[in-house]
Amino acid sequence: MTENAVLRLRAERLARATRPFLARGNRIRRCQRCLLPLKQCLCETLQPRNARSRFCLVMFDTEPMKPSNTGRLIADILPDTEAFQWSRTEPPQALIDLASSPDYQAMVVFPAAYASTGREVLTTPPKSGKPPLFIMLDGTWTEARKMFRKSPYLDRLPVISVDLSIVSAYRLREAHAEGQYCTAEVAAALLELADDKDAALGLTEHFTLFRERYLAGKPHHQSTITAAEPESV
Question: Hey, what's the signal peptide range on this chain (predicted)?
Fold first, then answer.
């Protein structure tokens, strides 16, 4: 199965743990790659795609280990996705180097309302010049806001804000406010806007299957649930 940066980050985080990480549903036997219940494993369905755009996930603490995390779905479809553990005071040098690389147009994905006065805000990615590098702050909404406020090494980058204007399909975590979407949904929208349509379709299909199988593996799941409970971004 294809290796990627999120899987490596998860392995590193587990190796540093001083006690077992117990997520919701921790008694369920899970595939150690996709983190879904063994009967719902979707690893054999993975179909990586090519894209001009590139993603970088900055993940909050235990986020790589959570079965409900959708940022890792991006790395499933785009294996060149980078992933780093967030640190306020000691950011990985590789993250700083990537964010300042002359090979990409780097931008932080976050709602425009949180950008400071004078900071450049984009609503669509550039379609010419260097490929876009979408830096996504992956965590709960509270964690993502903290990362956005306390990552000075990203402050010089423009913010790109995406208005999906749809009801989120994500039902795995509780939304804190209207208009919040999970990481994979926002990434698919960015790919579509950047004209990486094949990758956008691949990620959307992967996310849809992940959501269906995740919910199917939950105890007392009802297929008629319609309430949207997005993650962040």
Answer: none
